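Before a computer can learn anything about folding, someone has to put a protein's shape into writing. The outcome of that step, for a single protein, is printed below:
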Amino acid sequence: MTRLTGLPPLVSAATRVLVLGSFPGVKSLQLQQYYAHPQNQFWPILQRLWPQAGWPADGDYVRRCACALAQGLGIWDVYASCEREGSLDSAIREAQLNDFPGLLRQCPLLTGIAHNGGESFRHVRAVEQSLAHAGLAGRVQLHKLPSTSPANASWPFERKLSAWTAVMHEHGLLA
């Protein structure tokens, strides 16, 4: 199997909630874009959460990222690299975790980490240790959100949106 390398973090000093996926799918790696699969509901959920944000109608990735950052949202993955055939989390092998202590120092306003799905949440203990190492234990809440992946068909869009809305409200990202 070929070793795959993930995407760099999308964060700013104003990031208040960091969304953590597991590892980019094939389409995302090909395009070097988070949540690039057309059936992934990540970007549609963000558009519904912040309809006033000026989301690009044409799916312009750079503008999408700017809109997410402007809302106080950051995007990254738990894995820096892994071996995997296809896009399914169940196929991930020999995964290496990302450098969370290094990232957390870049986000002084961080109050929440939202795991986008179960595979990401499997590593909640490692994230908690990184928070403690960065002196952020107790200040940053960890959440498990339903995956926006097309593989998570058991959750309808509106139910996913409701769960995501609750977490963003809790961290003051929604009025």
